Amino acid sequence: MNELANGSSGLTSIIAFAVVIIAALIAWYFVNRASVKANAQIRLLEALLEEQKQQNMLLRRLTDKVVGEEEAAEPADEDKDFTRLIPER
Questions:
Q1: Distance between CA atoms of residues 16 and 57, nearest Å
Q2: How far are the Cα atoms of 13, 60, 87 from residue 23, in angstroms, in the given order?
Q3: Which of 23, 48, 72, 87 has the fewest CB atoms within 10 Å distance of its CB?
Q4: Which InterPro entries match (predicted)?
């Protein structure tokens, strides 16, 4: 009788160990999958950041060009001093 009890407890521990191993492999699969997705998202975000930097640089060039044209069109008055707007007491 004792041999039967000892044999079945050994089988139970092997089954429990197998279940733990299978659960660990399933958990590793989902963690690894999430990590791969996160890496792909990071690559996409970095690509978007580079494109945004290029767009900002182009926009800055365009606005500098427009501002330069406006300054050339306006006569430069050196008399635009704000201290003349403040009345003295």
A1: 61
A2: 15, 55, 83
A3: 87
A4: YebO
- Most confident region among 9-18, 67-76, 77-86 by mean pLDDT: 9-18
| Joined tokens for residue 87 | 């009345």
Exposure of 68 by Cβ count < 10 A (0-12 exposed, 13-18 middle, 19+ buried)? exposed
Q: Tokens in use for 39? A: 């890496």
CA dist 72 and 65 (Å) reads 11
pLDDT in tens, 17-50: 999 999 999 999 999 999 999 999 999 999 999 9
